Amino acid sequence: MLNDGVLHSNPLQKTNADYLARQSKFESNVRSYPRKLPLAIAKAHGLWVTDVEGHTYLDCLAGAGTLALGHNHPAVMASLDSFLASGLPMHTLDLTTAVKDAFSETLLSLLPNQGRDYCLQFCGPSGADAVEAALKLAKTFTGRSNVISFCGAYHGMTHGALALTGNTAPKNAVASLMPGVQFMPYPHQYRCPLGIGGEAGVEALTHYFTQFIEDVESGVSLPAAVILEAVQGEGGVNCAPASWLRAIREVTRKHGILLILDEVQTGFGRTGKMFAFEHADIEPDLIVMSKAVGGGLPMAVLGIRREFDAWEPGNHAGTFRGNQMAMAAGLATLQVLQQQNLAARAQRQGQWLKDRLIELQAHYPALGQVRGRGLMLGIEIVDERQPADRLGHFPMDPALAAAIQQQCFKQGLLLERGGRQGNVIRLLPPLIIDDEQCRQVIQRFDNAVAAAVIQLRT
Question: To pair with 256 at 20 to 30 A between CA atoms, which of 86, 185, 245, 386?
């Protein structure tokens, strides 16, 4: 383990500030994480990250959920060593190899019905690339052009994917995004979009979606697809109720609308099941996969129900769809996920963390709600000094959320924010997190919240 904090000193060694200053010279203003997590990484293993000054951090960001097995897992490193020694090519376009064959068989076996009803499409290296492929395929198959997405969604930053994303900040300066996108309200446990809350709010949203599709006077033509996340990640860790998801599946199937599940962040054990849609016991038509599927290397894959595979050869291509090293790392990751039943581990460790965070709410009223599934957790940060809404919920406090993130960094805990105005603290640790590391996460978070409250409220 690299958690001893030791890094031999070197009088010529650059500091974090030195590297960050150089990064600001080399890179565009678009860089974001270094502004919130100001470090330069020297090495990493498991959950531990060491910066160039020798400080160590518990990583509860994990490449935005990419590193299911943490940094440099032995099985992944061994698979890469073996691959490099094998003489196999690193790049093959969409030509096959023994590595690709084994990876494809293993990945398909994880899909509904052991993948017997699905085939795979290898896309460009990012989740957004697979989203774009899913949109094109849905339109190709149905002959329709409209798509329904949901408020709070995040599907990527490419032109089509950005059009489906709820956050307007990156969209405002970009004219003529993909037309035909209709946004609908997504259930929110703390801030019901209808102002109803509870089961009544979920039932109303379910009825609204059904009525919108089936009402011939809704003003919108029948869409080619509905795309959603079973747990919204960047949108603030909002979990879709199972009854709502099942109703959407029923309505889309009834009307020949392809249902696309974006499992880029939620897939591969993150929420306590292999895929987040399994919590509702539904089967999507198209499954978007990336992040953890590549074992830390860039890869995106689309799972397609075979009856919807309407592509002609070459209708959707991509140079880097044949990243063989990512397939080797991904195969090792999928094997470890299965052999060690890490989905069940994520459920168990996530529930322990969730319970401890709920206990902290008694000490910190600014922790408005703790929510999530498995090791995908969110804490809604509120200003309890302000008047509550009609449901008894307090206004968002993004300034305190930012201060908590900064204090977590000082405590040696790396995490990210999300949600409206960035007021939700998000925890996405690797699925291998152990009991002691869970305890350290809670202790460091507790210390950070206490310091942030003192910093801003006294």
Answer: 185
- Pull the structure tokens for residue 136: 């094109």
Please tell me the predicted confidence (pLDDT) of residue 216.
81
How high is the pLDDT of residue 179?
Answer: 93
- Distance of alpha carbon 266 from alpha carbon 288, whole angstroms: 10
pLDDT at 251: 97
* Domain annotation for the chain: domains and CATH numbers: 16-72+342-457 (3.90.1150.10), 74-339 (3.40.640.10)
First to last CA, the chain: 39
Q: pLDDT of 177-215, one tens digit each?
A: 999 999 999 999 999 999 999 999 999 999 999 999 999
Q: Report the pLDDT value the prediction gives residue 4, as an integer from 0 to 100.
A: 44
Backbone angles phi, psi at 343, to 5 degrees: -65, -45
**pLDDT confidence of residue 180:** 94
**What DSSP string runs through 338-404?**
HHTTHHHHHHHHHHHHHHHHHHHHTT-TTEEEEEEETTEEEEEEB-TTSPP-TTS-PPB-HHHHHHH
**Which stretches of the chain drop beneath a pLDDT of 50?**
1-9, 11
**Rounded Cα gap, residues 267 and 275, in angstroms:** 5
Rg of the chain over Cα atoms, rounded to whole angstroms, equals 22
Chain centroid offset of residue 37 CA: 19
Residue in this structure with the two tokens 């080619």, named with its chain if needed: 224
d(CA 128, CA 156): 5
SS3 414: strand
Q: Give the sign of the dihedral formed by CA 92, CA 94, CA 95, CA 96.
A: positive
d(CA 263, CA 292): 10
DSSP code per residue over 133-156? HHHHHHHHHH----EEEETT----
* Residue type (1 letter), 82: S
Q: In terms of C-beta distances under 8 Å and separation of at least 24 residues, what long-range contacts does 337-345 make, across chains too? A: 337/68, 337/69, 337/268, 337/269, 337/274, 337/431, 338/110, 342/68, 342/69, 342/269, 342/431, 342/432, 343/269, 343/272, 343/273, 343/274, 343/374, 343/431, 344/272, 345/269, 345/431, 345/432
- Structure tokens, 19: 């590297």
C-alpha dihedral (402, 353, 33, 457), degrees to nearest 10: 10
